[in-house]
Amino acid sequence: MADLVAALDVGGTTVKAALLDGDLNVLATQRATTARSADGKALAEQVAEIVSVLAEQAGTGAPGAVGVVVPGIVDEQARVARFSANLDWRDVPFGDLLESRLGLPVAFGHDVSAGGLAEFRVGAGQGCTDAAFIAVGTGIAAALMLDGRLYRAHGLAGEVGHIDVGHRILCGCGATGCLEAISSAAAIARRYTEHTGRPVDGAQPVVDAARHGDEAAVAVVSDALDGLGHGIRTLLTLLAPEVVVLGGGLFTAADYVLDPVRDWLSSALTFQRLPELRLAKLGDEAGRLGAGLLALDLLESRR
Known about the structure:
Order of helices and strands: EEEHEEEEHEHEEEHHHHEHEH
Radius of gyration: 19 Å
Largest sheet: 5 strands, mixed
Number of helices: 9
Structural class: alpha/beta
Number of strands: 13
Low-confidence stretches: none
């Protein structure tokens, strides 16, 4: 049906899918373990099955379009996943592959960019024309809105996790000093375990321990927030967004981490504009809603 879209947020372990109407109302949902193959064909088959199940579950016909977003470096114009470590992909033309398999229009994009689109349209960034959405999760990436439009540069823009913030820790990308290597949820958990020998799952337990005076946790969280301050200052110097929307696992403890980042920026900025810092509103739904918006935009462009 022309006014319905299937929206899928594909992660390294889980696919979150929904059937949405033109107002983003959820008509059906599905979750599945991500099918993996280096050529993308296994995921294409899985997406086709999920779309069929969603339509059957909702009692509708096939959707008018399908939106799919994945992590990594995604050239949305070419509809190619240039690199996705989480999916073991290199140069997979997934947009064309999936469209051929489904026989439906397919919008293919990047998960953080799509999450930012959703936050800018229907979440914390509504009303902005120059804004950034920074997702602090397993990695760190940003969606950039400049003059009211998303800026992607063939998938290479927004990789703020690889800004050099001045430490000597080796990043997974091969460089040292990357923001992601000290401030991501994965880095916070890893560094706390290195300091204490106690494994933790993500940033939240470390932040909770810091709240209760755990010295190792305080040091690790302080380093992470300092790194974020440096990274955001670089972003402000280059692009001067009026609003920065912050989301991801670290900012579930907003009352503990947001004020220190704001204070860091207030004391460190000279000529740069201090942005309004806002917490993301859409949580884990941002990527899936963004995939739906991409599909709806595709439908609109073809009318």
